[in-house]
Amino acid sequence: MVGESLILKGKCFLMCPESELIRRQKQNRLSVFEISPNVATQVSTRSDTNEIKAVKEYARPAAGKVIDMELIRPIDVLLKTIKYLINSVATRQDKPWSTIYSFISNRIRAVKQDLTIQRCKGRKAIRVLELAARFYLFSEVKMADAPVEDFDPILNRDQLLDALYKLFELYADDSADCSNQAEFESYNVLYNLDKENIEMRAMLMNIHFRESAILQHALSICKAAWLKNYVKFFKLVDKSSYLCQCAVRRHIYRIRREAIQTMNMAYSNRTGTFPIEKLAQILQFKECSLAEEFSSVHGIEVTCSQLTFTKKPLIVFQDRKFSTIASTDGDISISAIIAPG
Amino acid sequence: MAFNQSFTQYLGSLENAINNKDGRKLGQLLSIKDAHIQNPSLKQREDVLQHYICQRFTPPYIDLVADHVRVVAAIHHYDPRHAFDSQLGLLQSFSRVLQSHKDENWGISTMYLLISELTALAFRVYYYSKGKSTDVLEKSAEALMSCFRICAGDRGGGLSCLICKLLIYLNAILAYSRSSLETSKKWGMLGIVNNLFKIYFKLNKLHLCKPLTRAINSATIKDDFLKSHIVTYRYYVGRKAMFDSEFKEADEKLSFAFNHCHTASRKNKRLILMYLLPVKMMIGYIPSNKLLSKYRLTQFLEIAGAVKIGNLLKFKEAVAKHQKFLIRCGVYLMLERLKILIYRNLFKKVFLLMRTHQLPISAFVDALRSMQEDDIDADEVECILANLIYTGYVRGYISHQHQKLVVSKQNPFPVPSQVSLR
User: Fold this and answer.
1) 3 state SS of B405
2) What percentage of chain B reaches a pLDDT higher than 70?
């Protein structure tokens, strides 16, 4: 093929180019994750850092600058890098997750950049992007309650959508390894649940995928959401994989609010009440107290674990804390989620 | 057009058409569907033909003819991609011709033809590539946009600021357009817009339709365009409204298109009906068997029948049976929404059977279980009922403690078409 010779091939075979390592060492800008814990106390030389642990950081490409291929890592190294980040850094227990996230998301961004510059294709490139996308999805939930200085949800979302977009481009190649395509199509569908034109997208999918259980499940969730069947929606979400739950998280609050709005109208009568436990169960709140809080902030009266619905319009409210589903709470092993096998 | 004409004779006809300002004739002579493309004299070497062309014509018409000749050559070589590229060049050359026409609009008849053939070639390349070559569609859209700008009076500006520019320029035209209405090229706008809609629908970029509809809606001549253009326009606007779940608007636009579509264009009427039917069903009207048979849309027969009697099982079977057809139309997922009407009809039956205003939830659970909805439980049924009450299809309330639906004594199940959709 004519274009092959024009494709740039990276020449940096380490996770971090030597020149950058030396520069950052001098500037004392090595991350805590890049410094080997086994520092010999006697001899404190500049080579405290175990070179294997340094990872190239993300830097905005300077306009007009010629790309130095010595600084770009080839696809094998990129795959190795991202695997290292997920398996060895993300699993660390000694640092708070916001620090870990901040480091990994930056380094993954650099990985994606090298990938884009070289226009990598093929199985390994797909694998890199798959891992990246899973990481961003996982982070959406893990960092949900973090303050904005530690986690920018918009940036995370942009990175996620970018990774998915690039993935789908690679899957479209004839010889691509599409064994995980259904999984990522389902994340995409769930993530974009509220966009009706996903119908077009979904319907353009290969017949092959129509028979995929993962995709069918995702489509059922979408249909339940479109028909405002909140009971079915939460039942199905509860049965979904962890990452599917992450993908659907951003719609949870809205669906809960719409549910309570509907119930407010349908259950209101002079004498009847509605048990809070039931609400907590069908809307998948982790605890009844959360369900109570949810109801009262919207202006629905709660007395003795019973809700009184009146046709009064709901108070407008938005809080991230009403977006957690019972099952996504709690400690999950990240490497098992993101890089299974 | 005679088959055995020599090349010079063909060029002569072209020249005449131009001098007589016969837009339609010119279009015919530049069309790939016309008999002239089979003329063996057109199969000569390109440089030979160019020689004749340069002798006969002056710019900007030279490029026009030269490009057309290239298109014909590509067609003869069974090269759709090359044909498309040349046709694109042809349209771009023609834009220059159009721009050179001051205070005259005979060129727009030619333009319609060139545009529709460009779109057709683009789609041919697109389908051959199994949907991968979206660039042909995007390039066509760009070319159409520049024609649009010429017609609307725009003197320049990039695609990126098109939205505000369109509105500004339209207002500007209305304020001080130099060309009088008869010779204005504004009449070409809707024909171009319709082709753009076709492309945007294919590209799934429906959001790009919005600035175009805004531009057309603010044109004073919006009701005076060619009837066929208006029908096509309303068809697309109606379809878009359908995807945006604005069923009343979709009904209005698609019904207009259907009623005003020429009775002879059976194929088009059927196409409109394919989208109008689900919309009508959504707002509570069931189509007659006669209508469905007339337009060979009997796939909807079973579906409509199931909705009418509230038979969820039959509905699901019918939808599964015609899945491929429905997916191709793009209405498959939309039909999901009909379920709410099915529930309404089914539950009304339960009400009529039980003859009481205090209906146990279990009765509805049983009704659905009889439709092979084995997973359904009381919670889900309550949810469905709650939605029916919220949307106004059922008047009453649910008592969770007593597990009953209490319906109003007056008109508990209002006629669906009377219920305003939220």
Assistant:
1) strand
2) 91
